[in-house]
Specification:
The protein is of the alpha/beta class. It is built from 6 helices and 7 strands. The two termini are about 20 Å apart.
Length: about 180
């Protein structure tokens, strides 16, 4: 019950950032509108996450939509394999440069440096728990402010970073 009240409070604080309002870039707006905040029921939703709590289901469905949009061959992730596999039938899990999902709470600076050493311009990094505590917020800001990072999205429960440096560096707060 306490987490539901907190999630409602977070949503109310971020209501101005709903559905991509204020995003000028057509690419970024499209990503927010049709991937992050897509409200249509996808074909796999009915069989995924039946026993998951609300946050795991919410993040799992987001990762499903991102994987469905990106269609990576290899994903580096320690969880959510059922959601990711439903989005990409032929995906494998291991060391990847295409799509990486990490928890900022469980990753030290060496792990983040390792990821930065192998990313490419088409890489996508999803960082969980960015607002878990002060250390997590500092690590998230370190990731976003790195010279390699491009466009990023702060969804409160996780963050998404693109590394395409041809685009203008920007961090969007999104009500997710």
């Amino acid at each position: 019950m306490k987490s539901k009240i907190k999630s409602l409070w977070v949503w109310l604080l971020r209501w101005r950032y709903t559905r991509g309002f204020g995003i000028q870039s057509p690419i970024d707006y499209s990503f927010v509108r049709y991937v992050i905040n897509e409200h249509w029921k996808y074909y796999a939703y009915s069989r995924l996450g039946k026993d998951d709590d609300w946050l795991r289901r919410k993040l799992g469905r987001l990762y499903f939509r991102i994987a469905n949009w990106k269609q990576p061959k290899v994903i580096e992730s320690t969880g959510y394999h059922d959601y990711l596999k439903a989005a990409c039938k032929d995906v494998t899990f291991g060391t990847s440069t295409e799509m990486i999902i990490i928890s900022v709470k469980d990753s030290d600076n060496d792990r983040i440096v390792d990821i930065y050493n192998r990313i490419k311009e088409d890489s996508l990094l999803i960082v969980e728990d960015i607002n878990a505590d002060e250390t997590a917020r500092k690590r998230w800001n370190m990731i976003v402010n790195n010279e390699l990072a491009g466009v990023s999205f702060d969804l409160y429960y996780c963050g998404i970073v693109f590394f395409d440096r041809k685009r203008y560096k920007q961090t969007y707060r999104i009500n997710f």
